[in-house]
Specification:
This is Succinate--CoA ligase [ADP-forming] subunit beta. By secondary structure, the chain is an alpha+beta fold. Helix content is 37%, strand content 24%. It has helices at 5-14, 28-42, 70-80, 142-148, 166-175, 180-199, 236-239, 249-256, 275-287, 304-314, 334-348, 364-372, 384-396; strands spanning 2-3, 22-25, 47-51, 64-67, 84-85, 95-96, 100-104, 115-124, 129-135, 153-158, 202-212, 218-220, 224-227, 260-263, 268-272, 294-297, 322-329, 355-361, 378-381. Strands 1, 8, 9, 10, 11, 12 and 13 form a 7-stranded antiparallel beta sheet that branches. The chain has a 4-stranded antiparallel beta sheet with strand order 2-7-3-4, covered by helices on one side. Strand 18 (355-361), helix 12 and strand 19 (378-381) form a beta-alpha-beta unit.
Length: 397
């Protein structure tokens, strides 16, 4: 689950990570009040107005602006709130900005220069270990750094049995070229960041940039946080941070029906029970000359209501030219699923695209008979090859 920058920073602060302070605002008037509060609490004359959406590259799209006085704060907030912000991560459709973060200006002058770094904590699935990935090239897209100057990206593996060790935090600070007070501050920052990552059951914490201020403080100027959905039952307060306006409406509807759904760009809708079988089904569709329009796992106890909800969600996609239902009857009997398909079809009414139903497992033969004798525009199959041939056949029409 993605959360906003201001939410991620609040979590970081609760774990002792120094952050760029800020106040979220829903209107230009609230943004002005936030700027006044920052002036009062942190003596911040200038502020940064930052669009809050679940995407990076906001500055490139005009979603991050410096304001030097209250009039500029109001103007910047008016320009950003309500805009359709397009960044390299949103696609051409962009995302509507509903709120901004008014943050203190931390790039103040001093005797020594400020310096930006990149840092993230995430899971290396191949090795089964968490890693701290960091670079001296902060403020840039890490993909560009990896492509053009890969030697400037460092990785520190963390043994899950012992966690981050002090010498590893020191090594990170050393590789970033720090010394003196900044060196000590960075070791504390890394330790607190890793503690936050583990304590929140996150799948990623990305801070870009991590800033060394002119007086050698180390702080998080941005925060991109992805919380592991599987760990949210332990963190109901974090689960409440979900912003459904930032998500695909169809995916939100699917989650409310306990369906695992991800929209794709193809022309064949998929309705499957089990993630592994869903991946195999998508491969079958591609082998048949089609492209999967979605990933949809209805779970192990599919019934008429589940199938109906899945139908409704798939049919919202105008690109869908056929639907492939691929169910393995282990926990649930195939004939019950087949009856659920028939009942859902009849309840929805006229479904404008052909449906291929492949049922295998308990009572598969009985299920095929039910489908064949239903009189509906449904094609039955038992083998995967049969299902693939049916997909190819209906797409060719």
């Amino acid at each position: 689950m993605n959360i906003h920058e201001y939410q991620g920073k609040a979590i970081l602060k609760s774990y002792g990570v120094r952050i760029q302070e800020g106040i979220v605002a829903d209107t230009p008037e609230e943004a002005v009040e936030a700027a006044k509060k920052l002036k009062e609490d942190f003596n911040s004359d200038w502020v940064v107005v930052k669009a809050q959406i679940h995407a990076g590259g906001r500055g490139k799209g005009g979603g991050v602006k410096l304001a030097k006085n209250l009039d500029e704060v109001k103007q910047r907030a008016s320009d950003i709130i309500g805009m359709q912000l397009i960044t390299p991560q949103t696609g051409v459709e962009g995302k509507k900005v509903n709120k901004v973060l008014v943050a203190q200006d931390v790039y103040y002058p001093g005797e020594s220069a400020t310096k930006e770094f990149y840092m993230s904590v995430l899971l290396d699935r191949a090795k089964g270990r968490n890693i701290v990935m960091y670079s001296t090239e902060g403020g840039m897209d890490i993909e560009e750094v990896a492509e053009h100057t890969p030697h400037l990206i460092f990785k520190e593996e963390i043994d899950p049995k012992v966690g981050l060790r002090p010498f590893q935090a020191s090594k990170i600070a050393f590789n970033l070229g720090l010394s003196g007070a900044a060196y000590k501050e960075m070791t504390k920052f890394v330790a607190a960041l890793y503690k936050a990552y583990e304590g929140t059951d996150s799948s990623m914490f990305e801070i870009n940039p991590v800033l060394k201020t002119s007086d050698d403080k180390i702080l998080a100027v941005d925060a991109k946080v992805n919380l592991d959905d599987n760990g949210l039952f332990r963190h109901p307060d974090y689960a409440a941070l979900r912003d459904t306006t930032e998500e695909d409406p169809t995916e939100v509807e699917a989650s409310e029906s306990n369906l695992n759904y991800v929209k794709l760009d193809g022309n064949v809708g998929c309705m499957v029970n089990g993630a592994g079988l869903a991946m195999a089904t998508m491969d079958i569709i591609k082998l048949a000359g089609g492209e999967p329009a979605n990933f949809l796992d209805v779970g192990g106890t599919a019934n008429a209501q589940t199938v109906k909800a899945a139908f409704n969600i798939i049919l919202k996609d105008p690109n869908v030219k056929a639907i492939l239902i691929n169910i393995f009857g282990g926990i649930v009997r195939c004939d019950r699923v087949a009856q659920g398909v028939i009942d859902a079809y009849q309840e929805i009414g006229n479904i404008p695209v052909p449906i291929i139903v492949r049922l295998q497992g308990t009572n598969a033969e009985e299920a095929k008979k039910l489908i064949d004798e239903s009189g509906l525009k449904v094609y039955s199959a038992i083998l995967l090859r049969e299902a693939a041939d049916r997909v190819k056949e209906v797409l060719a029409k």
